[in-house]
Amino acid sequence: MTPATESGLALPDGFLMGASTSAHQIEGNNVSSDWWAMENRPGSFVAERSGDAADSFHRWPEDMDLLSGLGFNAYRFGVEWARVEPERGQVSRAALAHYRAMVRGALERGLTPVVTLHHFTSPRWFSELGGWTSPDAAELFAAYARTATGILGEGVRHVATINEPNMVALMHTLVRRAGRSSGDSPGGRREGAAAFDPAAAEPDAEVTRALIRAHRAASAALREAGLGLQVGWTVANQVYQAEPGAEEVAAAYARPREDVFLEAAREDDWIGVQAYTRHRIGPDGPLPAPEGAATTLTGWEIYPEALGEAVRHTAGVVGPHVPVLVTENGIATDDDGLRIRYTAAALASLTAAMRDGVDVRGYLHWSALDNYEWGSYRPRFGLISVDPHTFARTPKRSARWLGSLARAGRLPEAPAAAPAGVSSAG
Ligand code: BGC
């Protein structure tokens, strides 16, 4: 185990400290994707369109310059399937070259790339075929993964097949419930993230099975390439907390929503943990946030300790042989001091889990940039703000603070005298 120091936990060798993004949320003009089609359909339930997003399709070198200049050594970003294969079987050589340049650009700047192949958006043609429930879904996704090895071969080690498959399967249920009459495709969040309630439904069982098949097929394709890729997927950890007497209800509630996706990662090279808040479960199911609890711009209870609890739970389900990468953790707020306090407390809970032996290999904050939060630009998760008109980037104080931890190679501890929580740090 890493030795304790007065100023925190020394980062283990090779620990990744950085930030995360996804392609659709920052690139802009992802016109061949199903989300773009949904956003731009007359009468769509999506409140705000992604449009130019943060224009990172063109400005990625500046984004990476900023991240490495801040002191980070890792950057998680997405490859967009709809750009790589805008029509079935038609691969864009220009898109491959674009993402190859991004991988090289990250490595040149000392940023270890962590690359996601699917982050909520699919090519339009794939959704029109029926998406994940189409009979060929696993093979189509594996074929894309095989194509993507032409990008990953530039020096990527960590690749995530599908981001938050549990949310993808859940959204499927929500959209189906909302009625296909609106013409909207699976993958959507109704009226933006604020109205999205993960407690409201159970992931679609058929989509769950299809996603696991697709993950396995893509993982096999990636390993067959012989590039030494470390393959995993990233799961939304909802930190289901049982109220006294509700342990069995909570376990039954968590299984289809989270654990089944973690169990599917037992043969993987790593598992991505994405944690923001908790969900309390009583004897009759999910409970609202405690009376008077502070909430974020997405309406989530501010509960930074979720991170430590999520990595402990994940390690318990996948087993000690699968290392953990925190691939998302953050807070939607306009109060950057709160972002620092939340993140310090979240990191302290991570430190405690690492001290207890959980094998954590990295922390990637959500998000590098203020970005398109699936239907709205209002919730701001970024360490770096982006002017929506000029696209000018300005690192926030939180970015400098987190970067300085990365530089110092230290993770904070919980302050001894203060209660855990947002009021305790910063
Ligand atoms: C997703 C991100 C999203 C973030 C905050 C995760 O569910 O992977 O795309 O922006 O949470 O809502």
From TrEMBL:
The active site is at E328 (nucleophile). GO terms for molecular function: beta-glucosidase activity. Keywords: Glycosidase, Hydrolase. PROSITE patterns: GLYCOSYL_HYDROL_F1_1. Residues 178-201 are annotated as: Disordered. It is an enzyme of class 3 (hydrolase). GO terms for biological process: carbohydrate catabolic process. GO terms for cellular component: cytosol. The keyword Hydrolase applies. Its EC number is 3.2.1.21. Belongs to the glycosyl hydrolase 1 family. PANTHER family: GLYCOSYL HYDROLASE, LP05116P. This is beta-glucosidase. It comes from Streptomyces leeuwenhoekii. The gene is sle_66560.
